[in-house]
Specification:
The structure is a single chain. With about 110 residues, this protein is mostly beta strands. The chain has one helix and seven strands, in the order ββαβββββ.
Length: about 110
């Protein structure tokens, strides 16, 4: 009989705002809980914060999440903005034609 296995993918962000993903394949079902616990401990030791979707009413920043992030595209500081129950990070970009737009680092 073949043992059931799972593929794991865990995502987060460094405190500087860089994305982080760890993937592993074929984790045996009886080792799944221990593997997830170990991954979580290692990510916390490395200062990686969990990925939390930016949309939805349950959006809450993890403890220690900074009020600013670094844009992964332009390598400049982004500022936190809020409206109602949602928030996002962005910074101004001046285009070649002199017009201004906003970048959210995506």
């Amino acid at each position: 009989m073949t043992k059931r296995t799972f593929d794991l993918q865990v995502s987060g962000y460094t405190q500087e705002g860089y994305g982080f993903t760890l993937s592993t394949r074929e984790v045996e079902a009886d080792k799944l809980d221990a593997s997830l616990k170990w991954i979580g401990e290692k990510m916390m030791e490395a200062g990686v914060l969990p990925f939390v979707p930016e949309v939805g009413p349950a959006r809450v920043d993890p403890p220690g999440w900074p009020d600013t992030k670094i844009c992964p595209i332009h390598k400049v500081e982004m500022t936190r903005h809020e409206k109602g129950k949602s928030h996002w990070y962005s910074h101004k970009v001046i285009n070649e034609d002199g017009t201004e737009t906003w970048c959210r680092g995506k």
